[in-house]
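#data-curation
PF: Archiving a pair of folding outputs for the training set. Convention for this channel: one message per protein, sequence first, structure tokens after, nothing in between. First:
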Amino acid sequence: PSCRPNYDTILSWSRSFERLMKNKSGQKFFAEFLKSEYSDENILFYQACEELKREKNGEKVEEKARIIYEDFISILSPKEVSLDSRVREIVNSNMVRPTAATFDEAREQIFVLMQRDSYPRFINSALYQKMLGAHGLIEDA
């Protein structure tokens, strides 16, 4: 059984997007919400970047960076994230020699985009309200 976040934790997500994103369950619920809006490419990109930052093997870093690029940056990708031209330029020049930091600016821009755009909708969503309301009631097993 997955460890369910408690009421205070869930409530804290509405106070700060950082708190939501630092919490594994929070990120999972947020991703679920984005999927329901058909906009989960942002969180998938963000999570892929986080994973890339944890990778220590140089060859794997390069391989993962290329996959992330193909999946989320390439204009041919159906999951392309929305980046401004400045950040896109940075990513493109970083791809010459990819490192764990290749997508830092892009990740930051997508974080801000989610914070500004999707996060307020998530906090007002039925999904989030239901999670808050479900506490103190009998939890579904």
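PF: Second:
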Amino acid sequence: YPTWKRTLARRARESQVKRFCRAQAIQRRLEEIEVTFRELEQQGIKLEKLLRDENESPADQQTRWTNQLLYLVQKKNNLMSEESDLMIAVQELKLEEQQCQLDQKLRSYMNKQETLKTPEDEKAEQEILKQLLEVVNKRNVLIQMQEEKRLSEL
């Protein structure tokens, strides 16, 4: 097994482990966001009840409750934006994994000597190359979406 093949295999494993760790971190954060959503929802319900039921409360108390409610809405919107970013990152990780797998398949066909390739091998190689280009284009679209979102938030 030549050194370059071992190096490629090791790098592929390392990138796979990195993607797996990133996916786990994203999943944990999505779960945290879900819990925070529920907590914010409960706090919002309490504040709404206070505002509706306590009409005799001093005006400054009602203003405080209204400001707290607006703060909760803003916090929820920020979490929704973060959740959206994380979902895009999940899609990107999936495409990255798919690209890596296709790349490995393509390398196996490309490493085969031309004289040993059958017409089926050449057809499969072209199909993998086509799929690889599609994945790269999808990743490019995701990156463009992220950039547009970032610019719109500025």
